[in-house]
Amino acid sequence: MSVVDAAQPTAAKKKSDSRFWWYLLRRVGQGLIVILLVTLIVFALLHLAMPDGPATGILGMQATQAQIDAFNKAHGFDLPVWQQYLNFLGQIATGDLGDSFKLNRPVSDAIAQRLPKTLILALISMLVALIIAIPMGIFQAVRRGRTSDYVLTTWNFIVYSTPSFFLGLILVIVFSQSLRILPAQAPQGESVAAVLANPGGLVLPVLTAALSIIATFSRYMRSSTIDNLSEDYVRTARAKGTPVAVVVARHVVRNSLTPVIAMLGYYLPVMFGGMIVVESLFNYPGMGLLFWTSAQTSDYPVLLGCILIIAVATVIGSLLADIIQALLDPRTREELS
Amino acid sequence: MSTPSPTSTVALATRTLSPRQRGVRRFLRNRLAVFGIVTIALFLLFCFVGPLLYPTDQVHTDLRSTMLPPGSPGHPLGTDDVGYDILGRLMAGGQISILIGLAAGVLATVIGTLWGAIAGYVGGIVDTVMMRIVDAAIAIPATFLLLILSAVLRPSVPLMICVIGLVSWLVPARLVRAESISLKSREYVLALRAMGGSHSRAVLKHVVPNTVGTIVVNATFQVADAILLVAYISFLGMGLQKPATDWGAMLTSGMTYTYAGAWWLIFPAGFCIVLTVCAFNSIGDGLRDFFDVKGRAA
């Protein structure tokens, strides 16, 4: 900051504000490009994997060449690939995700019915996980190198190295098969309300998802807190006689949370990827299962639609994470602009 | 820590250690990393030498001896639902899991390193385009990509290596790019360029070798993740066709018999996965201390 800026704090503030908005605009533009690239990647992959289009997958092996030609003509698969891609872009630009080949309904309908269920499962799992992982990480950092830290680190290390479907399976064996206190199948209701009406069925899916998230985020929280504990402001506060617990609660937690919150935005694709496993293990009719069945029936439009939705969510998520980080920590705001 | 204490032996006190020797000591002092190395060595012996000492038929089913519990004569770990010997199957499945894991981890590391090194070194519009592609690919969950690819292509070992490698190179690309940016303005790179050395020489002789710490540490974690991904593919029903198998496929087919109480179809394969992945992760942690690089949160 120059001398002039320091002399005129309001002008400096205005300047850094406008730089912040420029940064935001640039990030939104980048996000749009990323989404465009996602559609291109998925489109290219589908065409590399199925050069002749999905016709035989949809119509079956017995389909005659005439039927295949008719299908290809009806869905535009007879056009050159680049033209198919442009048609697809034009279509999604108007908010239309097309019709499913197999489900006899628009893709947006199918996703609108399934997505909320995945979101509610993901949200509850994330909340449960953070409520446990954040205090766990702080506790481990404060008691660094002691037995309790060592035990928790080892535990998280093992959970992190375990496939989540194996974790879920162990939970099912313990709680459903041996103790018989929880159902092994997730709620099957059509709507979110119906799902929430059966909280018992949600316990094991949520626990399975949450255990993996806890293992990841308590590691972040632990190392972030350790970094902050060695900062000068902690030493100053301690030197003034503030008890450790107060220093941690008042100063360290807020500062160490910032990078962890930023991780949340980037964690979204991992989260969605994990949901597909949890959903198929507990037979929970969310978007993961929808994607899984669509992959097996080569239902192009649904596959593209699901990935598009996730990509948009990820771009928005990482944007929000950066903004929240900037709001929480003035230092990053300076770096951004 | 690096200075020998007065009480140590004369030989130690008089010999100054090279940075590499100090690193090796740090690595060996990390008991977890040594555990990792020993575990992987034992698993390699088990999977690749084991079948020579304990030959079993892993191709033909044996419907006269299915679901035998552990301890049955001739089948120390029992048999599965179509009569394969579990101990022998763990070896056969382990070969595939470890082979795919190692190969896919290396493939992802090579692609990611070159991509990141070039993007960071060239900079400008090339860097922007290359890194936006990475951003876009990272926004698609790996399991979703794997599902699309393995649903339409016939699963085989080389295909699974390529598919897993192709979804896993993004993180190393980002890490190497960051290092490459800081390396390209170092004096020795500038000197090479001033003397007429080519760009490709600068990238291959200086940028890539100087990121070797980051690359090796990340490669170890990549192998661990790849072994998990193999298991996920099998769980989602897109794995190799029988009689070929991997630990994930064994675990998944055993899940059908959870309620029959056939724990030996589930836990041996599950523990093999967990132990191997733990071992690779702890080697990664040890190597990170050895190279003194920042990788994953400790």
From TrEMBL, chain B:
Keyword Transmembrane helix recorded: yes
Domain of life assignment: Bacteria
Keyword Membrane included in the entry's annotation: yes
Keyword annotations: Cell membrane, Membrane, Transmembrane, Transmembrane helix, Transport
Spans through the membrane: 32-54, 96-121, 133-151, 157-176, 215-240, 260-280
Membrane topology: Multi-pass membrane protein
Locations listed in the record: Cell membrane
Pfam entry (one): BPD_transp_1
Domain ABC transmembrane type-1: 94-284
Family membership: Belongs to the binding-protein-dependent transport system permease family.
Protein name: Peptide ABC transporter permease
